[in-house]
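ok posting inputs for the nicotinamide-adenine-dinucleotide job
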Amino acid sequence: MSYFKQTIDGDIGTLEFDTPDSSVNILSSAALTELEQQLDEIAGRSDIKVLLITSAKKSIFIAGADIKEIESITDPQEASEKCNRGKQVFDKLEKLPQITVAVINGACLGGGYELSLACTYRVAGFAGCVKIGLPEVRLGILPGFGGCVRLPKLIGIGNALSVILPGKVLDANRALTLGMVDRLFYDPILVEQAKTFGRAVLSKKEKVHRRRKTLITKLLEGNPVGRSILFSQARKSVMKSTAGHYPAPLVALDTIKSLVGKSQAEALRLESEGFGKLGASEISKNLIHVFYLDEQYKKKKWNDAEPTLTHVKKAGVVGAGVMGGGIAQLLAKNNVICRIKDLNNQALALALKTARDVYKYLLKTRRMKKGQVEAQMSLISPTTTYDGFKNADVVIEAVVERMDIKKQVFKELDEVVQPSACLFTNTSSLSVTEMAQCTSRQDRVCGFHFFNPVHRMPLLEIIATEKTSEQTIATAVAFARQLGKMVIVVKDKEGFIVNRILLPYMNEAAYLFQEGVDTKHLDDIVKRFGMPMGPMELADEVGIDVGYHVAHILEGAYGNRMRIAEILKTVYEAGMLGKKSGEGFYIHAGKHKTVSSNVQNMRGNTVFTLDDDVTLKRLVYIMINEASRCLEEGVVESASTIDVGMIYGTGFPPFRGGLLRYADSVGVKHIVSDLKNFQDRFDQHRFEPSQLLLSMAETNDTFYPS
Ligand SMILES: NC(=O)c1ccc[n+]([C@@H]2O[C@H](COP(=O)([O-])OP(=O)(O)OC[C@H]3O[C@@H](n4cnc5c(N)ncnc54)[C@H](O)[C@@H]3O)[C@@H](O)[C@H]2O)c1
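and the output
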């Protein structure tokens, strides 16, 4: 295999990285070995004065180290050795007698950017495909090919921490501002410009002035007290965003801290040691698993059909409530012209306010300019009639969660919307099949389930009925991706996947609360497990009326195992609806909340005798059990679809790899044995293990191949 091609133009040599039979360049062991041979040879070449490292791949410089190799690491020693190998090669690159220039034409991530750090200069194209960064912590590891050592030297400790600890990926302009690249050139002539740049620095006609440190930076980074403040602030910020569940940024921080004042050789050794602590960890394996899921589901073809529309230009939205307003904003954000209908102007005004509030935040955080916001807001036009709906490519229904109203809306839409248009419903739990039956186009109807808040939640659940055509699914998938969402396609069964699994968990939390586990304690147990929010906080956030309503539909569909906890009914009937009414399980005052003693008093005599372990198991195993039923009934085709749904739809902790990967790590046998025990102790129906779990326990089976 040949990965690199050498060419020479005057005194400029070019080493072009072009992995055979692949659309990307990755620093595998084989590629590193060949790179080393090439560098050894170039080191002796006196005719080459400047060496450019370029890529033959479109929009990709080097995507990183080989993740498969990282995944296969089984012990810390092996992890450190893998790092040392990369370091050895990059050390040769750094020590070449020639001036070296990394010519970044696209993704330059992880090991790819570490290679460029070993070059004398880095130049990049302006194009949007240029993405630069060290995102290793997202895979549960740290930059191990010299990134922790060279980046702080290049851009300062504080800046390097701000890139490495969150695993940030920057566009070309931001990379230039931080000093991570030295020049930006026009993309079509990037290599030519890089040659001109190389010649200019060689002849000393051009000098690269790296950004000077500000006085504050000098004060902070130049003495032990300042550095100690810097590192302690960085630690606080990591703890705030990860709650300590992710060791990689903390080990990266400690590693960078330990490098200060060390020789480069010693610093590189310490970096490999830091990598060794992480490379073989279960958390890293889980995060790599989630990375693969992410890659796979971003592109997954759900069937062989082609979409009838590859790009939606005009869409209608019916229902301008919490969801309708959010959906309109998302459409406008993606340049889709949006007509939104409700019964009255007050509702429409509220939807416009919802959309504007999202934009206000984007303005405040400087992600958009005022002119762009106004242009996008003008794409949303409110109406109380179906005026303009006949031009819509697709329509999304988001009226109240009532079958009679939804059916009426579908009947009306069927009459006014052009025959070829697809009709989508945002229902959380109702039968899409029943709604579709009110139309003359059952093949062009499916569920299109956004999560709240629409602009923040990455998942979109597409619900296919028996009658939905493959083209409609393909169209819905393409449209969801146009809106930047992660898609799963599921069958039409009450609650679909995410709500069907999440609601029993929230209901179980209510049972535990009834038995005497305190509100905050319940939330803390779950957050310690890694969920972004506890179940009681979530109930208040979603709205106890909304949750209760969906829980009611699920109880009707699935019977005793989803019997609603009495306390939910009591709280709902008392009008304590959570955040929206000011009180639910918590009392909400602005950004602050305190546990509501009113709800605590409503639960009567309690019998709390559980330890935290049993509490957590009841909450998590009830989800695993319901997920296994979804698989058993064919509502989804694979465990990975459930895991994608739970991670992107509920924030199930990625470091656990997903709900069913977590089940595998515990062992289905143990889960079944606990569920049987809980059946005897707490409730026969709620904890009855599914047939799938029982048979898996018998054969020692796992959800994922082991
Ligand atoms: N709120 C959530 O967290 C959430 C999350 C996912 C999905 N959903 C689903 O989205 C849908 C809407 O939920 P929501 O929370 O936005 O409800 P909402 O009560 O905030 O808004 C519903 C809107 O529909 C309007 N409406 C009622 N009948 C109408 C008609 N015939 N024509 C036009 N407008 C009509 C109402 O006036 C109201 O403004 C529901 O199906 C719900 O299950 C809600």
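notes: The mean pLDDT is 96. Residues 318-324, 341-343, 347, 398-401, 405, 409, 426-428, 450-452, 542, 546 surround nicotinamide-adenine-dinucleotide (CB under 6 Å).
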